[in-house]
């Protein structure tokens, strides 16, 4: 009996001793700790990354503490002997700057320019082939421009406009880096529609969809021009969000031959009005024209449009601008029986009205009341050519192919 009991006691002691050894190893910690598999082998595989420093090297340009850093092209993050796994760049307000890790993890670049006179922080992490991480942190400050440009825009923030209204920017300095400036204007719409920009000269940039806006469309424009180098040494200073909404769908068609205008909403005629247009030698432009201004009464002087001394009327009623060169659709109280019968104007579209604009029942008053900024007036069958697309907000007279090339 004593033999088996002795052997059992010895087995129990060995197991206890093994447990004590394991307990001792577990308390030891450090990089030489055991795997916890009961084998008591030092350096066993725990399934985690190898210990020791990472072989990956993170590089950030510009160097830490740099001042007067350029807003484009200067910020770059790269990794050698490893791959970037995380890059976070924030401005002084904690807003993150978007960017992409490219080249299989070898580099990161921002997807947009940086703002001027702004401090940025950079945190970048890379992993080597064993999964060990290396991190770098840096900060720098962008340049403060000596020369700047701004853009005035239409329509106004928060406005409701007609289906023909483009978003138009006019800059106070000529732009020689048009792609950079255009790309800094981001437009989102609900419902979504493709919106593209077109330059007229070097100081005007208009945006529009291929066809007129759909009624009810909500348009949001992000002007991220702060820090954009519009021309050598001249930087944008605007960072602003502009919103506007498209109102009901109204397009009016003036037929010079019939001397009538059909007012259409959602493609259906709601009113037909007699008009008078440009007489021979003063023909009205053909084409699609957008209403850009409205005046209950305004002065019209021929001297301002090259018709010296031919007219000067200080109380033209119910006037709405269609071109920058002086084309209006407006009330006319001096036209006699011309409306619907013969063309007698100096190029404008005239509607019967009364002096003083007091009678709300006249054709001109009705049309004025039912029109908004951004509505389209189409003139056809005139002997004149089609209006230039940059004469007013009339880019609709360009094909989509011309607009986008």
From TrEMBL:
The keyword Signal applies. Gene3D superfamilies: 2.60.40.3710, 2.60.40.3780, L,D-transpeptidase catalytic domain-like (2.40.440.10). Residues 28-46 have a biased composition (Gly residues). Residues 28-73, 130-157 are annotated as: Disordered. The active site is at 330 (proton donor/acceptor), 348 (nucleophile). The keyword Transferase applies. Residues 1-28 form the signal peptide. Residues 250-380 form the L,D-TPase catalytic domain. Keywords: Acyltransferase, Cell shape, Cell wall biogenesis/degradation, Peptidoglycan synthesis, Signal, Transferase. Pathway: Cell wall biogenesis; peptidoglycan biosynthesis. Residues 48-57, 138-153 have a biased composition (Polar residues). PANTHER family: L,D-TRANSPEPTIDASE, L,D-TRANSPEPTIDASE YCIB-RELATED. This is Ig-like domain-containing protein. It comes from Streptomyces cinnabarinus.
């Amino acid at each position: 009996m004593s033999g088996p009991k002795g052997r059992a006691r010895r087995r129990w002691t060995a197991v206890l001793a093994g447990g004590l050894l394991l307990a001792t190893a577990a308390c030891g910690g450090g990089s030489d700790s055991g795997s916890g598999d009961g084998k008591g082998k030092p350096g066993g595989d725990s399934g985690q990354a190898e210990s020791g420093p990472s072989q990956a090297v993170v590089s950030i340009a510009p160097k830490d503490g740099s001042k007067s850093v350029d807003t484009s092209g200067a910020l770059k993050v790269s990794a050698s002997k490893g791959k970037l796994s995380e890059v976070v760049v924030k401005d002084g307000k904690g807003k993150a700057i978007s960017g992409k890790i490219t080249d299989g993890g070898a580099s990161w670049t921002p997807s947009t320019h940086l703002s001027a006179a702004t401090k940025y922080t950079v945190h970048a992490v890379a992993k080597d082939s064993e999964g060990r991480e290396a991190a770098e942190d840096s900060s720098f400050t962008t340049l403060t421009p000596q020369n700047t440009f701004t853009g005035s825009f239409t329509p106004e923030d928060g406005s409701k406009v007609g289906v023909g209204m483009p978003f138009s920017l006019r800059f106070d300095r000529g732009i020689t880096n048009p792609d950079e400036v255009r790309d800094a204007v981001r437009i989102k719409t609900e419902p979504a529609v493709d919106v593209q920009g077109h330059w007229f000269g070097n100081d005007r940039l208009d945006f529009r969809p291929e066809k007129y806006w759909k009624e009810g469309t909500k348009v949001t424009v992000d002007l991220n021009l702060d820090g954009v180098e519009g021309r050598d040494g001249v930087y944008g200073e605007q960072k602003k969000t502009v919103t506007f909404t498209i109102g009901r769908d109204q397009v009016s068609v003036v037929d010079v031959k019939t001397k009538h205008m059909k007012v259409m909403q959602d493609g259906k005629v709601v009113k037909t009005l007699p008009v008078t247009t440009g007489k021979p030698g003063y023909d009205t432009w053909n084409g699609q024209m957008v209403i850009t201004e409205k005046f209950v009464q305004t002065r019209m002087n021929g001297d301002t449009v090259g018709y010296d001394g031919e007219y000067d009327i200080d109380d033209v009623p119910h006037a709405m601008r269609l071109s920058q060169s002086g084309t209006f659709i407006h009330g006319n109280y001096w036209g006699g029986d011309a409306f619907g019968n013969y063309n007698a104007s100096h190029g404008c579209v005239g509607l019967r009205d009364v002096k003083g604009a007091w009678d709300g029942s006249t054709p001109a008053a009705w049309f004025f009341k039912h029109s908004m900024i951004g509505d389209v007036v189409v003139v056809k069958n005139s002997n004149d050519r089609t209006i230039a697309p940059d004469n007013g907000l009339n880019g609709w007279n360009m094909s989509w192919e011309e607009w986008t090339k």
